[in-house]
Design goal:
single chain; alpha+beta; 7-stranded mixed beta sheet; 27 helices; 15% strand; elongated; P-type zinc transporter activity; ATPase_P-typ_TM_dom_sf; transmembrane helix; ATP binding; cell membrane
């Protein structure tokens, strides 16, 4: 690109110098010398066009440059020397402007390559040594100074880090990461220096994979080819035909020259690549890498969408769903002990437990005398107390099973996931339910995808039919294909192509055949050299499904702008060609008119850089505000867990203990949860309403608060009717359960709705 730009600029300088100096000699009366200078000024452009045309013909492509070549040759043969050099000036200026516009449009992808780190600061014998990036190995201890790029993937070992992840996510606001958080290479340290432990080598890290993908996208064939070539197939013959007819009917070859001049260099070779690269740049800025302009065009025409469930519609990793605690034990104590012990394990479930504890802001202890037994569980001491965590079979082989265990295991089996039991000082203190959760943004992302033109959404999964249909109903897909093998997914996509252009979204190695089979394959996240990223045509560099809807919207808008530029530019060229054929537009003036057309279509194509992202709201909250709102929900999670536990235990605990259990629960609700909901109504919702716009966008959410408060009032009233030393009647217990089930359902739904609103404002 740079070399081509330099050639165009050199031709422009030579032709302008020839034009100006030739005009000077003409004014001084040296006509022959002026003609020679103008001819010499046109020759470099002529040589370059011969080279470009031969290359195009060798690739069996439509040679749009052939029109410019014939025009300059015709001008010299017909002794229209001034016209010839003016065509050269216009051609070189248009090419230079095109190169500038393409560099401007592609700067987001180029910026990714420019940020690639080349060295790392490694601790060697307590001294910090700067080493080449390829010398970094997993488990190396690294220092990342302020303003430096994280060199490789790793885990944060310092207490906190402030990071600018805009290069990967497109979000300019710095984010805060806590000790133990996973770090991705290519992210900028926007705060104080911190230490990290490498988990991958440079070649296997996130940013290295992104650099390979970007390099491949930039070295791919020019993105103008598909859209432009279709029009060039008839526009070039049309131009030559009109020129031939004008010559044949009038016997004047100058008219034929005039027709070809106004058809040169044609908006096809200018507007389409600029618009397409602009669209690709917008997508790259939002964390979506499209490997070629042809894929952007296909993306705009996609109507059928296939999703792999795991890792796309769901997070693809275990997350804490709930904490079950034995009577009198705080759920945070159960989670804290489990996470403290799990710090010593490298198991994927252990990492999920530790992450959940960090998210809830729990302070973890360093365990002692830890033993891990075959992946089944761990034994050790936490704060001087013996603790055991692991599977039900492992924990109950050492400690008696609690009476609630079977009901808990039944619920986990019904909902999917795994159970981790926790014992403290010889008794089971509780259990954790971990599962692969549906992404928070998934339902919203699917709605946005439909708004962007998707007509049919199909979910592919290896899960059994019952679980698959449940998830499909929750997220809102049109069709569910369960119990699918990789070969089955590929066959389903090939069958789906009969409905139209198809897109497949996946993230695992087993998704690679399906991604390759679809017209457009989309990989979730560029994790090193993952097979899915290599096989895909589009890579989401940020783990956000709603960015795909933004890319689809951008593709639609980009293609529309490219078509507008082509149709308008070619339409004006055809009109000018007709005028020239009738003899009312001489070649010299035609060259100037064509330059005006070229500039107009280039400026219109650059409108693609101003495409507004597809968002529900054009306003947003800061990262700090969003983090604070979500932190409030995480802090209330143990209360919801306790509410669930008490609700399910009412039929199993001793009648004499019912009043104490619900009194303790009511106290938690009155002191922590209800004040939070009131503060939301008075302090948070007015701010959200201003951002969302409309008359009263938070009215439905405020109405839910009224229902929550009413259920709380009914709960307190019934608790007050239970005798202090008595046993509640069966009707009272049944009414308590109805209220608690209703309160749990509405609170969890309410929290999920608030989280979705936060997603809209992110």
């Amino acid at each position: 690109m740079k070399q081509l730009c330099s050639v165009n600029f050199l031709i422009f300088i030579v032709s302008v110098a020839a034009l100006v100096s030739g005009l000077g000699f003409m004014l001084w009366g040296h006509q022959e010398l002026a003609h020679g200078i103008w001819t010499g000024g046109a020759v470099p452009a002529l040589v370059f066009l011969v080279y470009e045309t031969l290359r195009a013909l060798a690739r069996r492509e439509a040679g749009v440059d052939m029109l410019a070549l014939i025009s300059i040759c015709g001008a010299i043969v017909l002794q229209e020397y001034l016209t010839g050099v003016v065509i050269a000036v216009m051609l070189a200026s248009g090419r230079s402007l095109e190169s500038f516009a393409q560099r401007r449009a592609g700067r987001e992808m180029s910026a990714l390559l420019a940020k690639a780190p080349r060295t790392a600061n490694r601790f060697d014998n307590d001294a910090v040594v700067q080493v080449p990036l390829d010398q970094v190995r997993p488990h190396d201890r690294l220092l990342v100074r302020s303003g430096e790029i994280i060199p490789v993937d790793g885990d944060l070992t310092s207490r906190i880090a402030i990071l600018d992840e805009s290069a990967l996510s497109g979000e300019s606001t710095p984010v805060e990461r806590r000790e133990g958080a996973a770090l991705r290479s290519g992210v900028l340290n926007a705060g104080a220096p911190f230490e990290m432990r490498a988990t991958a080598s440079a070649n296997e890290s996130t940013f290295a994979g992104i650099v390979r993908l970007v390099s491949a996208a930039q070295s791919a064939k020019a993105p103008a080819s598909r859209l432009a070539d279709r029009y060039a197939l008839w526009f070039v013959p049309l131009s030559l035909g009109m020129a031939g007819v004008a010559w044949l009917l009038t016997g004047d070859p100058v008219r034929a020259l005039a027709v070809l001049v106004v058809a040169t260099p044609c908006p096809l070779i200018l507007s389409v690549p600029i618009a397409i690269v602009s669209g690709m740049s917008i997508c790259a800025k939002r964390g979506v890498l499209i490997k070629g302009g042809g894929y952007l065009e296909q993306l705009a025409q996609t109507r059928v969408l296939f999703f792999d469930k795991t890792g796309t519609l769901t997070s693809g990793r275990a997350q804490l769903m709930s904490v079950k605690s034995s009577r009198g034990i705080n759920p945070n104590v159960v989670l804290g002990v489990a996470a403290s012990l799990d710090q010593m394990s490298g198991h994927v479930i252990a990492s999920a437990v530790v992450n959940a504890a960090h998210e809830r802001g729990l302070s973890l202890s360093l365990p002692t005398e830890v033993k891990e037994l075959g992946g089944a569980g761990l034994i050790g001491n936490v704060d001087g107390k013996p603790a055991v965590i692991g599977s039900y079979e492992f924990v109950t082989s050492l400690i008696p099973s609690p009476d609630w265990a079977q009901a808990f295991l039944h619920d986990v089996a019904e909902e999917g996931g795994v159970a981790v039991f926790v014992a403290i000082e010889g008794a089971v203190a509780g259990a954790l339910h971990l599962a692969d959760q549906i992404r928070m943004e998934t339902p919203r992302a699917l709605r946005l995808l439909r708004r962007a033109g998707i007509q049919h959404i199909i979910m592919l999964t290896g899960d059994n039919q019952q679980i698959a249909e449940t998830i499909g109903a929750v997220v809102g897909v049109d069709e569910v294909l369960a119990e699918q093998t990789p070969a089955g997914k590929q066959a389903a996509i090939e069958a789906g192509r009969r409905r139209g252009i198809t897109m497949m979204v996946g993230d695992g190695v087993n998704d690679a055949p399906a991604l390759a089979a679809a017209d457009v394959g989309v990989a979730m996240g560029a994790r090193g050299a993952a097979a899915s990223s290599e096989a895909a045509d589009v890579v989401l560099l940020v783990d956000r499904l709603d960015r795909l809807a933004e890319a689809l919207h951008t593709a639609h808008m980009t293609r529309a702008i490219a078509l507008q530029s082509v149709i308008a530019g070619m339409g004006l060229s055809v009109v000018a060609m007709l005028i020239a054929a009738w003899g009312y537009l001489p070649p010299l003036y035609g060259a100037f008119l064509q330059e005006v057309i070229d500039v107009a279509v280039i400026l219109n194509a650059l409108r693609a850089l101003r495409i507004v992202p597809l968002r529900v709201s054009q306003h947003s909250l800061s990262a700090v505000e969003l983090q604070a709102l979500r932190a409030d929900h995480l802090a209330l999670a143990p209360i919801l867990d306790r509410l669930t536990s008490v609700t399910r235990e009412l039929n199993t605990i001793a009648p004499a203990q019912i009043r104490q259990a619900v009194v303790e629960l009511d106290l938690l609700l009155q002191e922590k949860l209800f004040p939070h909901e009131r503060a939301d109504d008075t302090d948070v919702y007015p701010v959200l309403a201003n951002l969302l716009g409309g008359d009263d966008p938070m009215a439905a959410m405020s109405r839910t608060h009224r229902e929550i408060f009413e259920l709380g009032r009914r709960l307190r009233r019934i608790v007050a009717t239970i005798p202090v030393d008595g046993i509640p009647e069966s009707e009272t217990v049944a009414e308590l359960q109805r209220i608690l089930y209703g309160l749990e359902a509405i609170l969890r739904l309410h929290f999920a709705q608030e989280e979705e609103i936060y997603q809209n404002l992110e």
